[in-house]
Every structure is written in C-alpha cells, then in structure tokens.
Input
Amino acid sequence: MAKHIFVTGGVVSSLGKGLTSASIGLLLERRGLKVRMQKMDPYLNVDPGTMSPYQHGEVYVLDDGAETDLDLGHYERFTNAPLNRDCNFTTGRIYQTIIDKERAGLYRGKTVQVVPHVTDEIKNCIRKVATPDVDVVITEIGGTVGDIEGSPYFEAIRQFALEVGRSHCMFIHLTLVPYLKAAGELKTKPTQHSVQELRRIGLQPDVLICRTEREIPRDECDKIALMCSVERRAVIQEKDREFSIYEVPLSLMGNGLDSLIVERLGLTNARSIEFEDWTEMVDNIRDMAKPGSRDVTIALVGKYVKHRDAYKSVYESLDHAGIAHHTKVKTVRIESEDVETVGAAELLAGVDGILVPGGFDKRGVLGKVAAIRYARENHIPFFGICLGLQCAAIEFARNVLGLADANSIEFDKDTPHPVVCLMDEQKKVTRVGGTMRLGTFDCAIKPGTLAHKAYQAELVKERHRHRFEFNNDYREMFAEAGFVFSGTTPDGSLVEVIELPSHPWFLGVQCHPEFKSKPTACQPLFRDFVGAAIARKKK
Ligand code: GLN
Output
C-alpha cells in the first residue's frame, strides 16, 4: 500500500513548496522508491490553461496534453515520476465533477455539501495516483494554511490520514523564519502561529521545513520543536540557496530529511541514497559561478518577461544547457515591445544568441519579428519556440520573399499572405471546439540537418500547445529561398521544425522542447543552441 506525504505551506506564499516537494521526491527516488507527485490548486479555474502567465506564471504541459501548474515542471525536472492529468487538480475541476454528478442525479436526492462531497472528491483524487506499484505519493497543497479557499483540502487530508492510518501518512509543513534587521534576530513566532492554525484544523505536522536566509541558532530550533510539538530532528532548515535551486535536495539530505521520512513511514524497501550525479551537477554549477569562469549571453525576447516565472521552463532549460557546456548562461530578458520602440540593434548588440519563446496574441509580435531579422542578418544563433517559429516565418516572408504584410491569421485575419494559418485548414479537416494541439506528438526529423545533429534520431516526441501552423501553401517558396523543413509530422502534413542552412544556427520548432529538459540531461536543441552561441562568442 502506498504511503502518503502531504506538503503544506504557512506564513507567506511563494516559499517554494513546489521545489521542496520535488526535492523530497528526488531524495526518495534516489533511495530506490517509486514516487508519484501531485498538486492541488485551490483556485476556481478548471485548469491554468486559460490564465495569463502574468497571473500564475507558465502553463506547464504534460504528455497527455494536460495544462498544469508550473510546479509540475519542478516535479519533472527533479524526478522521474510519471505525470498525467490526475497529478494536478484545481477546485474548479473538483466542483465541475461534483456538479456533473449532481446533474446526472448520482447523489440520489441528497444535499450536496463541501463536507462530505467536496472532501470525498478530493480524497478520490489523492487515491487515483496511489496505484499498487507506488511506494510514496507526495501531494502538495497549494496556497497557505488559513486561506478560505484551501480549507476543504486541509479537511480532506485530515480525514484521509484518519482513514489510512496515521502511520501511513505524514504531514510536512513549510514555513518562513524571517530575519528582522532592526532586532538583529530570526523570528520563530510566525512559524508557531502557522502550526497553531494547522493544529486548530486537526493537523499535527510531523516535519517542519523552515525557510531562512540565515542559519537558525540551535536554541531557536529547540524552541520551534517544543512549541510546535515536533521532534527536534524534524525541525529542518532550508537556507536560501546560494547558486541554484538544484542545491535544495542536497541541503535537505544534509539535514537528514530522507532518513527521517523513511523511518517515519516505515519504508523498509528503501536503500541507501545514490546521489553522485546530482552532487556532481551541483558542484559543476558552483564552479561555473566562480569569477573568471566562461559565460555566454542569451537574449530572450518575449512578451511576459516582467513575470519571473512566465517562461520558467525555458529559463531552466537554458541553465541546463549551461551545465552541459560548463558555461554560465546569462539570460537577458527583453520585452518585445521595447524592440519595436528602441530598436533591435540597440537592445541586442553584443548578445551571443537570441531566443523567441511561445506566446499568444499580437502584442509585441513586431518586436519579435525585428529581433529575428537582427539574428538572421547578423548571423547570431537563433532559437524560435512555437510562436517563435511562426514569427520567423513571418520575418522571412516579409524581408526575404518580399511578401509585404505577410502574417499569421492569429494577428491579421485578412493578411494577403497567411504564412501561418489554422491547422484545421492544413489538415483539410473540420473540427468543432477544442482545436488546440496539446500534448505529445511524433515528429519526423530529416537526416543531415541541425535538428538531426541535435537529436541523433529520425523520430522524436515533443510536447505541443498551439492552434496555428506554418501554411503548407508557402512551403515551396520558402524552400526555394533556402529554408529547410527539417521536421514534420510523420505523415508530412504539418511543419514541426524549420532551419536556415545559410546561417550558423537558425532553428524554429512548433513544439515546446523546454518541457523535456532536466539539469542532468539537457534537451538536445537547447544544448546545441547554447553550444552555437558559445562558438560564436569564441570567434
Ligand atoms: N499563438 C500561437 C498558436 O496558437 C503560438 C502558441 C505558442 O507559442 N504556444 O499557434
């Protein structure tokens, strides 16, 4: 029977519950255990798919096409736990299920209530991932203890522990121990209050992970343990990491968290930890941060650059490429609208590579097109992702093929040259509703191209999230002018990868390769893009 770990947060939001949960998953996996990760989000949207990246950061896409919270990206970068749409639930989705059941008469005339119906449905969602082959399910509860909207989840996990037995599950609570400059002290009171709030609703934490910017003195840890009724060794510090998020699991391991969990849950099949590759990778990052080490500058030209997490997986993948090349990647975030007003040359001079990520809607598109022109004409390595590929097609059509006002029909319905159009028109099929191409699809790669050099394979799988496509009516014209369609769907009907052999490294993909990169195994296109940027810098 699977054991359960529930990760909750207190004091403030944005403490890094996702990272901590992912780190716990990694530590347990490295002890030979089969882990599953899951996140509950207390908001009313059915999924984050329709939310602006300004609201909630990146929408992370899974193999099965589920549009999920970006914490699932941490789970995948840290662990090998398979993820699917049962790994992220929102209150909206849970209510949708309940209302559908109610409309179908499945409650047989009963009054449908938060307790027991919503809490039962939450417990069902937890059980869904606890399949017989799994040793530990880690469920992260979004939000902060005490939030009104989170309360059904806290109640559900309280009931869950009662049902499966307290020895089969454990509660890990993440809090903040702030440093007060004026007093010159770390303060434990917010942690005490947060645990009081948890206990008020019937949850006694087994472990407290205390985020702190400074070392917490021994007697303060003693105090937290005593006041919160938590074993002294279960008060675990998580000091702000110096160089990288990938240090978190090492610090938690150093503080004995994995052993504590194994013991507390009686995970007798756990073996001793195997962690050399991770430790080596973190040493590598620390080494790269030393003054005088090699670096390379990549400009990311996008529309949501002001939000730290809007392109989370892209930033992470660039870091992974840096790790692969033992070179620090400095990512400069450039607002695409600024390229329109200030100019590409002014903003992009001196960068070693230019990346245009995915996006929706027309704001900033002309800035992206200008940045791509600058990359193409100045032989700067260019990597276009999804909308980045589409903008590269618009740029080439306008500036090389002389097709004035060429555009995507997403931005100009009446363009005389729709080089990017709706995919249903491409496939010559009519579909109603949900026309977004979501999830993993096969892509056939043409030998002898940059894409093939990177992947070393003729068939690859990547995740997608888009509605529009390169327009096949323009393929011939682009090819005659030197474009290569180096990746297509296996039936050849949709363009997946484009490149320009006359340029040192110019490549656009319709997929989102950033969802497949790990710090210990960089996604090949990111690796080669950054490799090309390094080669340019060396010249
Ligand atoms: N807006 C474009 C489309 O729907 C690109 C989407 C993306 O970049 N994810 O096709």
The mean pLDDT is 94. The first helix runs from residue 17 to 29. The radius of gyration is 25 Å. The longest strand covers residues 437-445.
